[in-house]
Amino acid sequence: MPIHCNELTTFSEAEATDQFVHQNKKLLKINLAYGPVNARMGSMVAYQGDARFENTGSGGMTKMLKKAVTGEGVNVMKVTGSGEVFIADQATDIIIMYLENDMVSVNGRNVLAFSDSIEWDIQRVGSGMAGMQAGGLYNVVLRGTGYVAVTTDGPPVMLDVTQQATFGDAQAVVLWSAGVQMNIKTDTGGMKSMLRGGTGETFQMAFAGQGFVLVQPSEGALGGPAAAGGSGGGGGGFLGDLGG
């Protein structure tokens, strides 16, 4: 007996020729014909063809040492072979970007996948005693030419920092572009506010320069870089542990 369901056509596989394609806003389709890609460990939900998955660990000795020093880490798998791979992370929204000899500084928890042509590293960002009090200043820097896919906990907003002073909650900031400088601002709310328990907004990320900042509408577990003492609590620096 044939199956009749008009809704099924809505979920048909997206046909496209790019390396990274939105299957829908929460599912990324990767075309392996363009070569290997790096993806968050455990993010594969389906594939067609002959895909192979390799645990690349922390990405080499240097990155492993940085992970040990900073207490942060990035766990990715290399995907090779042929066909198409579908990846996702907890049904979060997916943003696809194409970098052309450019870079972005991304919270590790929000990195989903990137072309093998993209170089990545753990780098210190920001400065000042306030940053140290916030739990450390580290992020994942993705640099080069190729595709980058990041997750956001809900539809994000892109803020142009060249227009006016821009600030973000440390657990909601997803990434910022090259040309943007970030420092940590402290705002205790005054003595009366502190005596009443504070506002939960003590540590804020202050942005300046030329470029944009991407902020998600969430400060939860899937949120941006954790800052101890900031709203939503948490700790451990500005690099989430991609893949757990």
How is the secondary structure organized here?
Elements lengths: L19 E5 L2 E5 L5 E4 L3 E12 L5 H10 L5 E12 L5 E14 L4 E5 L3 E6 L4 H5 L4 E15 L4 E4 L5 E4 L3 E5 L2 E7 L4 H5 L7 E7 L2 E4 L29
Antiparallel strand pairs: 1-2, 2-5, 3-5, 3-7, 4-5, 6-9, 6-12, 7-9, 8-9, 10-15, 11-14, 12-15, 13-14
Number of E-type strands: 15
Total count of helical runs of at least 4 residues: 3
Average pLDDT over all residues? 79
- Specify the structural class: mainly beta
Order of helices and strands: EEEEHEEEEHEEEEEHEE
Q: Report helical residue fraction.
A: under 10%
| Regions with little confidence, pLDDT below 50 for 5+ residues | 129-135, 193-200, 222-244
Main sheet attributes: strand count, strand direction, barrel closure: 12 strands, antiparallel
Strand content: 35-45%
Over the alpha carbons, how many angstroms does the gyration radius reach? 19 Å
What does this molecule look like?
With 244 residues, this protein is mainly beta. Helices cover 8% and strands 45% of the residues. The protein has helices at 61-70, 129-133, 191-195; strands at 20-24, 27-31, 37-40, 44-55, 76-87, 93-106, 111-115, 119-124, 138-152, 157-160, 166-169, 173-177, 180-186, 203-209, 212-215. Strands 1, 2, 3, 4, 5, 6, 7, 8, 9, 10, 12 and 15 form a 12-stranded antiparallel beta sheet that branches. Strand 1 and strand 2 form a beta hairpin. The termini are far apart.
Summarize the structure.
By secondary structure, the protein is mostly beta strands. The protein has 3 helices and 15 strands.
